[in-house]
Design brief:
This protein is globular. With 175 residues, it is mostly helical. The chain has a two-stranded antiparallel ribbon.
């Protein structure tokens, strides 16, 4: 499903979630997947291309991402992200449809100035597997710290994590 249509579709997903229809695990998805799982642990780039917050630039990092607690000021509430997560679970055709099995994650993290509410920057990232949502969190923090120390540019960090978060540390030379 295209990123711009995820918001409209999320209303029906929220309805299904509230009715308990996508909470339990099943061996086959109830709907045909619109997004591919073939690149996991990376998202399908056609469904989740990533997006940047225009307020975060190299010249504003000192008043945005490098300020402790700044991400809390832009993080969308779960009342916004949970319907997107429910729809994303359907879109990606995950067999495990339990909402608790995924983090509705920003491909370009808020720590690097990712767009907080852009559906094209959000996807249901699995907690299961060898490289998971939890693993990505550590990569995000290391990249942000390097940007704030001036070791790498914001642009380099964003590009690396958007292209492939599993190689972002080695590509940027910080890990």
């Amino acid at each position: 499903m295209r990123p711009l249509t995820r918001i409209a579709a999320s209303t029906s997903a929220l309805t299904l979630a509230a009715a308990g229809l996508i909470i339990g695990a099943s061996s086959t998805p109830a709907f045909a997947a619109a997004c591919s799982q073939s690149r996991l642990p990376l998202p399908d780039a056609s469904c989740t291309p990533g997006a940047y917050n225009p307020d975060v630039t190299q010249s504003t990092i000192g008043s945005t991402i490098c300020v402790s607690g700044w991400t809390a000021t832009v993080r969308p509430p779960t009342s916004y992200t949970n319907p997107l997560k429910a729809q994303g679970i359907i879109d990606y055709g995950y067999a495990d449809t339990a909402m608790s099995s995924y983090e509705e994650d920003h491909l370009v993290p808020l720590e690097l100035g990712g767009a907080p509410r852009d559906p094209g920057n959000l996807w249901p990232e699995p907690y299961a597997g060898t490289k998971t949502a939890t693993t990505k969190d550590g990569v995000e923090t290391k990249l942000k710290n390097a940007v704030c120390k001036g070791t790498i540019t914001l642009s380099a960090a964003r590009s690396a994590i958007r292209n492939n978060w599993t190689t972002a540390l080695s590509v940027t030379g910080i890990g």
